[in-house]
Specification:
Layout (H helix, E strand, L loop, with lengths): L2 E6 L2 E6 L9 H16 L5 E6 L24 H10 L4 E5 L2 E3 L1 H8 L2 E4 L4 E3 L13 H9 L1 H10 L3 E2 H5 L9 E2 L6 H11 L19 H15 L5 H14 L3 H16 L2 H16 L17 E4 L3 H12 L4 E4 L3 H20 L5 H9 L1 E4 L10 E4 L5 H14 L5 E4 L6 H6 L7 E6 L8 E5 L6 H13 L3 E5 L5 H20 L3 H11 L5 H8 L1 H14 L8 H7 L12 E2 L8 E2 L1 H14 L8 H21 L6 H11 L9 H8 L1 H12 L6 H4 L3 H8 L6
Parallel strand pairs: 2-3, 3-4, 4-6, 5-7, 6-9, 10-11, 10-13, 11-12, 13-14, 14-15, 16-17
Antiparallel strand pairs: 1-2, 7-8, 15-16, 18-19
The structure holds nicotinamide-adenine-dinucleotide (NAD).
């Protein structure tokens, strides 16, 4: 049973017991109602305490039930709260550790609340694009005041119970327990002390007003509009709390809350946020690697190469308190790398984001070396040397000689074959790709590249380690570019064709930035450096001669316009500045190229730009799924949301395609394939997308 019933003398205790956080699933809700019925029937019971076992009072809705019919099945949370409110004997919530969402709404329905110190209290529904739907927006303002309640509801942030208890006149907590250990006993004593009080106090009977009324809510509305412009939920939170102050009666306010909640439930933004919530949790689970797979212990990390990536990668481990040894070929390279790490930390100290003593503690975990022997006690060694198979071979053969048995050998390669890299060792089972994104100390995404022979415990270890260094890890199979870069190839290819056909870099960037990407393809590549893609394309022209590209990107590089670092790329830049200004030279180069290709430029709509860029991601993503490179569409969405700036409120390319309707996406792809200036082969729809579209399904 997920809610236990016990009688202690004249007080019944209902203990929620649904690990990990006592989610209010159907069984638990039924358990509360059943417990109350037993307490009602037992004349010896004078009061009831509701509390939570283990690590929480309650974290709210049971996420396993989310979106299933069970979540709405009676007794739903509304009816549980109503049962508590109408109960003939006092019901006391004994709150501790975590009291969030539906858990807090349940507590607010109780007649009294006793809280243990250090409890984290929140109504976090807004983070899923929703608002509290079981009376939270109506009851919380009545006990802590309108403004503090609206702040909590519109941000979803957790607030410590001590802070809430210090609000003058607050009625959220009737008593503060002396300690978490004492909560159970003190709640029992409190329940006995109020056993005879009648009528029983109800939060719904408390007044709810704001002295500035309308003016305050207008101000609040403007505030949230500025902060959350793509998300409707915070604004609706304002409406709901306002309803608590203006409704004819409490029931009216509840109705208004219900209506706003249901409206939000059906917004694409909320669907995207809920998708993200689940995709993030699912990404850490690998279908054939059970969660109880034993993990190797990672006490010390080696990093080879102190360049752009090696330094950032090292910082992740230092931040997590794991010692790192960086190895380079020359002392100068080491010095440069260490200086960059210091500079990054010092910038954080200057901004007040890192304490000076913490900075020193992190640096103390870092050692440097020019000799491979110094890596022999490392449990994980990550290679971040030049992107060249010959150099990778040298490094991995050497690692095979010195690394201790069982050490994990990882490569940060962006494009090379991890199976081939593994074959340079006699222990391919210990080799894995750990593809960090630049800047590696900042970017959340980590693609974990699973080689043919990578051992399951290596994967399990790396996924757990990713969590420890606060990365979102997604598993990818081996292919050129893995999930993220393989897809961005198609996107860049389309960006090039759009120029050929009549768009300017500025128009393309503006259209996709309006869609929600922080940066369009041309501004992005100017920042990363056009020369990197140039080198990759040169290789591809030889290896895959049938891929079609606009040649404008090559012409740009031939002019030495590599991007911000040369103050000239697709745009012009003032030295040391990042503002992109349209470049007459580039526009002329594009025009000349069109003429030479015999292309008459046409006006291209922003809609077409967005569709071609985004659907190119979708089709390649579908192929990646079909080939088993990604095991679920949510993984692809996580890659794009955390590594490529895909707008959060659109939920990732695969989720977005489902929102548009796969039938519509396929129709558009067929249309684009007929364009003689495009690459019909690239638009050939994957079988997966055709099958799903025909069945009226989505990738999920
Ligand atoms: N820069 C990026 O945005 C990015 C992103 C993801 C992955 N990567 C990958 O990370 C790897 C490193 O890229 P980077 O941008 O940091 O390169 P980089 O040129 O900035 O740094 C490479 C470093 O490796 C050192 N090095 C080369 N050969 C070595 C050897 N045999 N032993 C020890 N050190 C050696 C060099 O001295 C240099 O300091 C590449 O495989 C690259 O594809 C790069």
């Amino acid at each position: 049973m997920t809610a236990e019933y016990q009688v202690h003398g004249d007080v019944a205790v209902i203990t929620l017991n649904n690990p990990p956080v006592n989610g209010l699933g159907l069984d638990t809700r039924q358990g509360i109602v059943d417990g109350l019925a037993r307490a009602e029937d037992d004349a010896a019971v004078k009061a009831v305490v509701i509390t939570g076992a283990g690590k929480a009072f309650s974290g709210g809705a049971d996420i396993k039930e989310f979106g299933t019919p069970k979540s709405l099945q009676d007794p739903n949370l509304h009816s549980v709260i109503r049962t508590v409110e109408h109960f003939g004997k006092p019901v006391v919530a004994a709150i501790h550790s975590v009291c969030m969402g539906g858990g807090l709404e349940l507590a607010l329905g109780c007649h009294y609340r006793v809280v243990a110190p250090g409890c984290s209290v929140a109504l976090p529904e807004v983070k899923l694009g929703l608002l509290p739907g079981a009376g939270g927006t109506q009851r919380l303002p009545r006990v802590i005041g309108v403004e503090p309640a609206l702040n909590m509801i519109a941000t979803g942030e957790a607030v410590p119970s001590e802070m809430l208890a210090s609000i003058p006149g607050q009625k959220l907590f009737d008593q503060l327990a002396t300690s978490a250990q004492a909560l159970a006993q003190e709640a029992l004593a409190f329940a006995r002390s109020v056993a005879d009080v009648r009528p029983l106090p109800l939060v719904r009977h408390l007044p709810c007003k704001h002295p500035q009324g309308e003016a305050y809510f207008q101000f609040a509305r403007n505030m949230v509009k500025g902060m959350a412009k793509h998300f409707p939920a915070p604004g609706k939170c304002v409406d709901a709390v306002e309803a608590a102050t203006t409704s004819r009666d409490f029931e009216d306010g509840l109705m208004k809350e219900r209506e706003l909640f249901l409206n939000l439930m059906f917004t694409p933004e909320s669907r995207s946020l809920r998708h993200l919530f689940f995709a993030e949790r699912a990404a850490s689970k690998i279908p054939d690697v059970p969660s109880d797979t034993p993990k190797r212990e990672i006490r010390k990390v080696g990093v080879i190469g102190a360049g752009t990536m090696g330094g950032g990668i090292s910082m992740n481990f230092l931040n997590a308190g794991i010692p790192v040894t960086i190895l380079e070929m020359k002392q100068e390279a080491l010095d440069r790398g260490i200086a960059t790490i210091r500079k990054n930390y010092e910038a954080q100290v200057k901004k007040g984001k890192l304490k000076a003593d913490k900075y020193e503690a992190r640096m103390a975990l870092l050692s440097t070396s020019l000799a491979y022997d110094d890596l022999k006690d490392c449990d994980l060694i990550i290679e971040a040397v030049f992107e060249d198979m010959g150099v990778k071979e040298q490094v991995f053969s050497r690692l095979d000689e010195v690394a201790k048995p069982g050490a994990i050998l990882a490569s940060n390669t962006s494009t090379l074959d991890v199976n081939q890299i593994a074959s340079f060792t006699k222990r391919p089972q210990d080799v894995v790709g750990m593809h960090f994104f630049s800047p590696a100390n900042v970017m959340k995404l980590l693609e974990v590249v699973r080689g043919e022979k990578t051992a399951k415990d290596v994967l399990a270890t790396v996924m757990a380690l990713a969590k420890k260094i606060k990365k979102t890890a997604v598993v990818s199979g081996v292919c050129d570019g893995f999930i993220g870069n393989r897809m961005i190839e198609r996107y860049s290819q389309q960006a090039g064709f759009l120029l050929d056909e009549g768009a300017t870099p500025e128009q393309v960037d503006r259209a996709i930035e309006k869609f929600g990407f922080p940066m369009g393809p041309f501004r992005m590549i100017d920042m990363a450096g056009n020369d990197i893609g140039w080198a990759i394309r040169k290789r591809r022209y030889v290896e895959q001669p049938d891929i079609k590209y606009s040649k404008t990107a090559d012409l740009l590089c031939e002019m030495g316009r590599f991007g911000q670092k040369t103050s000239a790329g697709w745009y012009d830049y003032e030295a040391g500045k990042r503002d992109a200004k349209p470049s007459p030279v580039v526009l002329k180069m594009i025009e000349d190229y069109r003429q030479q290709q015999g292309i008459t430029p046409r006006k291209i709509s922003d809609d077409e730009i967005v569709q071609r860029l985004v659907y190119s991601l979708v089709n390649e993503g579908a192929k990646i799924l079909e080939e088993g490179i990604a095991s679920k569409s949510g993984d692809i969405d996580m890659v794009y949301l955390t590594g490529y700036g895909f707008p959060i409120w659109r939920g990732g390319p695969m989720h977005y395609a489902g929102e548009v309707g796969l039938f519509n996406v396929v129709q558009a792809m067929k249309r684009f394939a007929r364009n003689p200036h495009d690459d019909a082969k690239a638009w050939a729809p994957s079988k997966l997308i055709l099958d799903l579209a025909a069945a009226g399904k989505t990738f999920a």
